[in-house]
Write a structure and sequence with these properties.
Chain lengths: 392, 392
């Protein structure tokens, strides 16, 4: 699933420590530069509270092209008003100057603590070092964008004769809801394909809805979620739109899965499927309600095949179904049929399946055509540790 | 706030161990008997998955009167199909027989593990002992209905010359959403007032919306939530409707506050007020989103005045407001104005206020008339402990 090659034609990457994070020598500033103008598409958080870099990046992708992405971790530059906006504009302008390109061609993204203005001077001071560090491997960049992440997140796929490389960060405040122009998940999809903006955007939005927007760690949608797709065209070939879409969806799925698996304090990933409702939209509402239920997520942590909590969460989703027809399987083991439990043996088999790092939960609520899928993590002491003391 | 007198004219109470809970000698069966037919009103969970006792109690209150309430803890009798329904009907029939009343006059309520059929024989065997135990004090009853509760929950108020006594249980799976006929909160409001059913129901629904339905521990609405109000008329006086409504709201508020304070693993209560939106409905949506945010609740656990998380949660509620006009105070200390933080001193004062067992959080998002209030608890390791191992 994960990347074998950490480079992609037409793009160079860098990641260095710039003193933004408290920990000395932690990588916290990343840069991606396209050799030529790249076609760009973006999806941004639908949270009403949006960080300065989100506002700026959304405006700048309207031109349809970009040359660079400047990303910092350790500071979200959110809820920072005019000083925050100035910091985003000044740092991206400095990148443009260092690269000899236009400021509007530099897309900013930030992740970290809310409410502190981005340290402009430190970033500008670090830029010469950052630019000198540009190289083919995306590995330092993938580490520079991490916050509470335990590992970097990369994935690749083929789209016909072209390639796709995806890089993401995210472990908490993960319940992306990103859409056309308007994800602290950050995800970057790079391709060397030739693609026009409509095709690129279509592939991006399709991938977001099927993957990032159907993944949750804690139900909290960030002020900074950003997904950017850049196409360099360096492969010299234009894959079929469906090929590109499929490749983006595969890479997005791998990245979303890695984020959920890396959920703060999480140890495993449950892949929830809800079927049998009137519509996909209905199924998605139920899946989201179950996937974000604290009682369900703590039961997962306890490796408890607690079907009652799953069914109770579905029942409060506001979507009509007949509970007496509900069926449930965990790890492929049926434990509920016609709304009634199948017994202690079935439950102990399901509990055994829950020892795996990832397993399916299938909830069938009728015979309608509506289906949805959601990735969710267990929630335990680690989450509390990370988030009760995040700023202190 | 809490009850000084644990009795109310016209009602007798009992609570005994019946072997329903695993722990030997734990009180788990409670009975309330009205000396005469009492006027009754009820509000039941809006969860689509509803336990057998909820279905039966809702049907039986339609007659407008009742004589008895049979409550067990340790078993929710939810998702138990026909055997569960039979168990509810047989146990309430046995109570009716023992008391010499009609079965339809006995209202059932259950709380505990989902998916196990109520142990009919144990309950019926215990009934003679239960009936012999009937007395004026509601104290044994208030303990017999507890599950993960750390303390019994009682509250009283005056309604003119009449009295109101409220008894509740609940600490987890607490996000009540109860309404006209339709917790696992269980709450029982007893009054010795003379009241017709419409007046009683009106007072009950008003109290539910203002108190239980604006309180959350974990965002999970139970299959068994039940609020019943019974009026014995033994005081011989009919208070004004507004008096009764006010008394119910006061008792409801005290009980809801006690439930949230007793939230599984919780150590304190935050009383969230959201103001300045277009409507009360809008304010309620925002308040609910903030009150149920995992990042907000873990910040409360850490006593971290993390306003960024509060504002970010408000921003994903789907209600329009201008973030640059947002203001926030915690414990009466303003820490955000015009969308911007008021500095480290303000935050450290707010953090100090968060050491209290209860404190207000006031979020102002504009100058509209819409206001809402929500009670929420901190969420920490205790919640994980209780819920990762609840059934094992």
């Amino acid at each position: 699933m994960f990347a074998r090659s950490l480079n992609i034609r037409g793009f160079r990457f860098a990641g260095i420590p710039a003193g933004i994070k408290k920990q000395a020598d932690a990588l916290d500033l990343g840069l991606v530069v396209a050799d030529q103008l790249a076609v760009v598409a973006g999806a941004f958080t639908r949270n009403l509270v949006r960080a300065a870099p989100v506002v700026v990046a959304e405006r700048r992708i309207r031109s349809g092209t970009a040359r660079a992405i400047l990303v910092n971790s350790g500071n979200a530059n959110a809820c920072t008003g005019e000083p925050g906006m100035t910091a985003t504009l000044e740092t991206t302008a400095a990148v443009a100057k260092a690269l000899g390109i236009e400021p509007d061609q530099v897309l900013p993204a930030s992740t970290g603590v809310i409410g502190a203005v981005l340290p402009t001077a430190r970033i500008i001071d670090a830029l010469p070092h950052l630019v000198r560090g540009l190289g083919e491997s995306a590995e330092p960049f993938s580490r520079a964008i991490m916050t509470t992440d335990r590992w970097p997140k990369l994935a690749t796929a083929r789209a016909g004769a072209a390639s796709v490389l995806g890089i993401a960060k995210g472990a908490g405040m993960i319940h992306p809801d990103v859409g056309p122009p308007q994800a602290t998940m950050l995800a970057f999809l790079f391709t060397d394909a030739l693609a026009d903006q409509a095709t690129l955007a279509d592939a991006l939005y399709g991938a977001c809805d099927a993957t990032f927007n159907a993944a949750t760690v804690d139900g909290d949608t960030s002020t900074n979620d950003t997904v950017l797709a850049l196409a360099s065209g360096a492969a010299g070939v234009a894959p079929a739109a469906t090929e590109l879409r499929w490749a983006f969806a595969r890479v997005g799925d791998a990245l979303a899965r890695s984020m959920v698996r890396d959920g703060e304090g999480a140890s495993h990933v449950a892949e929830l499927t809800v079927r049998g409702l009137a519509s996909d939209t209905d199924a998605r509402v139920v899946a989201k309600t179950v996937a974000t239920s604290l009682l369900v997520k703590t039961a997962l942590f306890g490796r408890d095949s607690n079907w009652g909590r799953i069914l109770a969460a579905a029942g409060r989703a506001g979507i009509p179904f007949d509970p007496s027809r509900a069926a449930l399987a965990i790890g492929g083991v049926p434990i509920l049929r016609d709304g009634l439990p199948l017994g202690a043996d079935a439950e102990s088999l399901a509990t055994a399946a829950m020892q795996n790092e990832t397993y399916p939960i299938e909830l069938v609520l009728g015979d309608g055509p509506g289906t949805a899928r959601y990735l969710t993590s267990d929630l335990g002491h680690g989450y509390v540790d990370v988030n009760a003391g995040y700023r202190t």
